[in-house]
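Same chain as my last thread, 252 residues:
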Amino acid sequence: MTGSLMAIVLAAGKGTRMESELPKVLFPVLKRPMIDYVLDVLEAAGVSKTAVVVGYRSQDVIAALEPREDLVFVEQNQQLGTGHAVMMCRQVIADHVGPVLIVTGDSPLIQLDSVKKLQEHFRSENLACLLGTLKKDDPAGLGRIVRNDKREFTGIVEEKDATEAQRRICEVNMSVYLFQPQALLQSLDQIDNRNRQSEYYITDCPGILKQAGHRVDALAVLKPCEALSINCVEDVPPVEAALINQGDSDRT
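reply #2:
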């Protein structure tokens, strides 16, 4: 696929388990907002434009990130799920020619090498959607990547909905996606909120595209450290230790 790479960073949440009134993505990791590490990698990957989805205390997030160039801020006034967050970016997506990378702002250990490999595979295989996945010895709590007998991606199943056999799958979804923009918009039109949380999930989009006959793949190129996202205060020290161990220069 031709065209430049743009990114959508999901950064609207409060992070109630962080024990802080700060927006989650501004919580300090080695004295820097955790989202800074994500944006550094996107910049190094050559992203032409980044849409940051903001919600809780949005003005604080905007003020913290305003010095950065090529950022567009998109308001998600109601937090109705990851799919809803991406829906708020419809116009930005529609105006773009080239792959759309979707990542979360609470994953400061995202790796430049992973983003490059995903983009190369996405373009070379002319895909509508590509998931960046990880093979994890202990996949508990994470969505499993389901494949058919030919090892082709067929969908994502959340742990609570998985069969015993599916729970033994070690390849997991890590909320890193590449989409062809028009395919993304088409799939967003078809997701619904008929689930326990009454929310719209971006995880539904790859399966919708696959069922419609589009080319969808999952590539297990993410590194073990990329599983260290931050969901509570206790998650911060392991992430900080990993950042110190590898050094920022190794990531960008």
